[in-house]
Design a protein that fits this description.
Strand content: 15-25%
Distance between the termini: 39 Å
Strand order of the largest sheet: 1-4-5-2-3
Helix content: 40-55%
Number of strands: 5
Order of helices and strands: HEHEHHEHEE
Structural class: alpha+beta
Shape: globular
Oligomer: single chain
Radius of gyration: 14 Å
Largest sheet: 5 strands, mixed
Low-confidence stretches: none
Mean pLDDT: 91
Length: 101
């Protein structure tokens, strides 16, 4: 398991919205809320941890992008995402600007 976690951590990357469009078109993108770790979700999916994945789906912590989200991202083509490929899926988290306090 630690080898899988290390491998997924190694391939964690950033992507521009335009790079993700073909994956959205083939319905392969899974949006992960910022409160979850992309690596944790990737390990669970790759290891067939169905109860964990189903719980995240039920709680809407991992979802398919909505048409509204896709529309917003199309309008802001400079949008960036943290990404992790776990075949056949591309897990993504929006990168948001951190507001200064």
């Amino acid at each position: 398991m630690s080898d899988l976690r290390a491998e997924l951590t190694e391939i964690l990357d950033e992507a521009e919205w335009e790079w993700l469009i073909p994956h959205v078109q083939r319905d392969a993108v899974i949006l992960v809320v910022p409160e979850l770790s992309l690596v944790d979700v990737g390990v669970a999916i790759a290891s067939d941890k169905i109860p964990s994945v189903q719980q995240w789906i039920d709680e809407q912590l991992i979802t398919k992008p909505t048409t509204v989200q896709v529309g917003e991202w199309n309008c802001s083509r400079s949008k960036r995402f943290n990404t992790l490929i776990v075949q056949p899926y591309v897990l993504v988290q929006e990168i948001t600007a951190v507001s200064a306090k």
